[in-house]
Amino acid sequence: MPTEAPTETALYIVPTPIGNLEDITLRAIRVLGEVDVVLAEDTRTSGRLLQHLGLKKPMQSYHLHNEHKVVAHLLERLEKGERMALVSDAGTPGISDPGFLLVRECLAKGLKVECLPGATALVPALLKSGFGAERFTFEGFLPVKKGRQTRLRELTAETRTMIFYESPHRIVKTLEQLAEALGPERMASVSRELTKLFEETVTDTLAALAKDFGGRSSIKGEIVIVVQGLRE
User: What range(s) does the Tetrapyrrole methylase domain occupy (predicted)?
Assistant: First the structure.
């Protein structure tokens, strides 16, 4: 009996470097060169990456503020046979970045989705912390306002290593609140500018980290906080 031809991938999730452009994979370069259009969180940022790779591709904006408006039209195009690559400004789309909605709707329509392995900030930050990586929980960004204190209270009994993303202007407040909720002597690490020239990882107690970063005149770069779990 003849076998069915494999379904062709409609949507590729393509990780991009989080800083060092050498971290793009050969497979990612090939896929970006083969697809019909690149869906980008910021077309200017992704445009510079494509230019660096020597690729010229049609691009379309796809970000947090327009994804609900454009997803239906994108699905129509995908069903007609277009192949698309979804990228974010840095790292893997769908991890604290847009992507989940489009992936879910593609799968609901029976469209094949393929995710390439690649750069993401949480793994190097976790391994550089020196805390246990056998079991960990990725919390992403804590709620900014509503639900923030509730989530912090829920984490007080967490025994796994905890990973958070944070922005430079909220890092001090977050470290202070983590110290208050989990204890000032709880060990943690703060990684910023990962894979870049001025990459930095500082490991200390939450109280000491809050004091360190609170005393800095300026803080730059996206930040990953890794907190040791509750010790039994």
Answer: 11-209
